[in-house]
Design a protein that fits this description.
Elements (H helix, E strand, L loop, with lengths): L4 E2 L8 E5 L3 H12 L3 E6 L8 E2 L10 E4 L5 H10 L7 E4 L6 E3 L5 H13 L10 E6 L5 H13 L3 E5 L14 H9 L1 E6 L6 H6 L4 E4 L22 E3 L3 H6 L10 E2 L24 H8 L3 E6 L14 H11 L1 E6 L11 E2 L6 E4 L6 H4 L4 E4 L4 H5 L6 E4 L3 H8 L13 E3 L2 H11 L6 H10 L8 H11 L1
Parallel strand pairs: 2-3, 2-5, 3-4, 5-6, 8-9, 8-10, 10-11, 11-12, 12-13, 14-15, 14-18, 15-17, 18-19, 19-20
Antiparallel strand pairs: 1-7, 6-7, 16-17
Helix pairs in contact: 4-15
Amino acid sequence: MAPSCYPPEYFRQLKVYVAPDNPAGRHLVEELSASGVQVLGIIDNLKTGVDVINHAERALPYDAVLIARSDYQPQIAAGMCERGFDNDRIWCLQADGKHYQRYRIPSLLQRWSQRLLSRLQRLPLLFPQLFTVYYAEKFVDSNVLVAFDYHQAIGSRVRLVVREPDREFHPEQCRYPWLGWLYLCCARVVVMDHESTNPLLNQLRQQRKLVQLWHGLPFKYLAGNKHFPHVLDHCFVSSSAWFNRHVFPQMFKASSYLALGYPRNDALVQISEARCWYNALSAAQLQQLRQGRKLVLYMPTYRDNGKDQPPIDWLALDQLLQALGAVLVVKNHPFLAPFDELRAQPDCAAIFHYPGRRNVYPWLADADLLLTDYSSVAFDFLGVDRPIIHFMYDLAEYRQVRGQFLIDSEDFIAGDVATDFADLCQALQHNLTQDQHSEKRRLLREKFAINTDVATPALVSYIEQLR
């Protein structure tokens, strides 16, 4: 470990602020406070709140600012320096999650390069607007993937650009960074389903039409793009007219909100041959795995506090599944399941782990039961009208990290709730043999006006009109 790196104990007698105001920052506050560090509050360059500041003039006397782990620590630190915070007292949490390194101001050459790059970002405004560009940072999520696959098959000048791809997601994906930059510069419409701090994209979205698909109807808190002063997207698309009226405008800035549906959900109402199977394990592998058994798909949400191991006795669960004639497929977050092939749970014959970086929706369409917790996939699965179990073993702790949920629990839960492993086993036995919550699912579909039709043709038609 480099001499400039220090463990959390170094800050135990100090007064610190934490940055930024996101789930990772909130979790860091919790960890530091539990270890005896005096946390004065949170710093965020854009957001404000009861315990959030964004300028040094509002800060109490402090000894250090600790930045939670992310890909944008240098930008966060630079922004704080511009707002009067002392660069010598800014520390960045390292990848190991156990040590902090002091932030260093970029050299004169680095700052000159950044200024030059900033000037170059204005060049795209001089380029002709020729393409519809589906854009992702590293991972192409299924909304962008499915919409692009349909669009490129019927339209011209449609491109998939991945800024720093960690794999090939589609055979028509742009393979050269310089060409991807050129396509973005020449974009007339940009389609994405995540937020981004890419300087080029930030420049483009002020002058070009951006369609934000996002990636699900949320139960938990989202930061959105409300705090970005330069953002006013052309359109925000979801699968719910109710969410478009009551939830999304509070978090995302857009000129219009359309309930066209999510492209990824098309698989849930399509026959197997019509689904988009790109970046998914094959239909043949699914059938070989099932062998006539019922399919349970477990899709837990990502936990910012790092406690991602559910209280499950895998061997006991395996015996139960075999007795019920069922197989369980676990689909974790890409961070937790970075492998690319299906893996069996050790010593289990009925439990498998789906690769986190693959598209699981073609498999979800065939699931007899969805097991999840606070994930938006529960809203997606309402359109399938099959049983859902919510495994909420850490509800209080999860709420503490993510903040208050966006909607009431009774408007999200559409099935049995299990709070421990015994509850889970009982719920599986009940729901694999009977369905007692069909009426509740129908009521939620109607209340939230969820669009369960095939979404992609209407979405692509809308995007074509923008061109």
